[in-house]
Amino acid sequence: MNNKKVLIITYYWPPAGGPGVQRWLKFVKYLTEFNIEPVVYIPENPNYPLIDESLVSEVSDKLTVLRHPIKEPYKLARVFSKKSSKTISKGIISDNKKQSFVEKLMLYVRGNFFIPDARIGWVKPSVEYLSEYIKKENIQTIITSGPPHSLHLIGLNLKKKFKLKWLADFRDPWTTIGYHKQLKLMKSSEERHKNLEKQVLNIADQIIVTSFVTKKEFEQITARPIEVITNGYDKESVKAFEMDSMFTISHIGSLLSKRNPEILWKVLSDLVVENTSFSKEFKLNFVGAVSEEVLESIKKNNLSNYINNVGYVSHKEAVMFQRKSQILLLIEIDSEDTKCIIPGKLFEYMVSNRPIIAIGPKASDVEKIIKETNTGNYFSYSDYKSLKIIILEHFHSFQNKTLQSHPIGLQKYHRKELTKSLSKLL
């Protein structure tokens, strides 16, 4: 039986690091088990903000990977400000009041001259290049994954040109994602974003989203079928390790300016003052990029001496931090727009056997999944008392060597199970 060939158009691919690369790397890994042969199309010379060489070994030698050059404005932007271009490309945007003139200008240019994003220049050459490949290989099905949402415009153009089945995968929303509001958009630019989003949602044959909130949001714009396929976890081979001897609370991933739970820093600061044992055994690990605003809040709460600011590490090292830490921290911006965000690391947290403490907006998808799977506790930005009680309970369990999580029903979030759901759509 011949495998069905499917063309996957994505920007993030090894050696890119960060959460964006994991989703399609794992789908591609398992698709062949469901009689589907993936062909991956990526940029030849991308400007990845994070690099993780360890992920290259996960790409099969048998996989066909097509590459085509891309021109990106971040290289030009570095002429004006290396620091601003690097942080903006990572998604770290300072608060309005703290933005330099150069950063404000770059955000204005990025939002109004590069619609929908800085990879728009790759659309036309990609459509030309892929048109030849589609004709030659008789490709019947394509998938585009965004952000960057420019890649959906490649799908849109190919769909108009050929009789293809097109699946548009949204790892994040488009016009309602938090940073969209920070792009200093003119009214005409905002309308253009919404118009392109509407076209993609109404012309693609199938929409895939990673959250239930995004599905509801998109149902107001399109009648096309929408399937929720969340991110998930894969079996990770971890070398033998010992649990941290300290009471470590670890946050894995970026902590942006607005992901700054003052309430947590206050709880930890009070526990340090009130509980001598806690102050001697507590340590806070930051594994990933941390904004200056967060570090200032930490300092203001007299917690600077308790911080282990590790910085960005490879995915394998991040998994090791997850397994060894006593508690895992998940923080989301307190906003209506972030209720739909389900970070990929949540699923890795869930299988690490460590209790999760999550802080974010009420009634979010993360809260739903954590409660469903019994993998931790979820708090709003005003839950001082209950947050303090849980951290103290966990600390006592740590002292008694009984601290662990008791998850239920995790199997449906395994990457292979999720790929099975994808294969049914194909």
Automatic annotation (TrEMBL):
Record GO terms (molecular function): glycosyltransferase activity
InterPro entries for this protein: Glyco_trans_4-like_N (IPR028098)
Q: Which residues form a coiled coil?
A: 179-206
- Glycosyltransferase subfamily 4-like N-terminal domain: which residues? 107-236
The record, for Pfam families, names:
Glyco_transf_4
What UniProt keywords apply to this chain's record, in alphabetical order?
Coiled coil, Transferase
Source taxon at top rank? Bacteria
Keyword field contains Transferase: yes
Protein name as catalogued:
Glycosyl transferase family 1
The record lists the organism as: Flavivirga aquatica
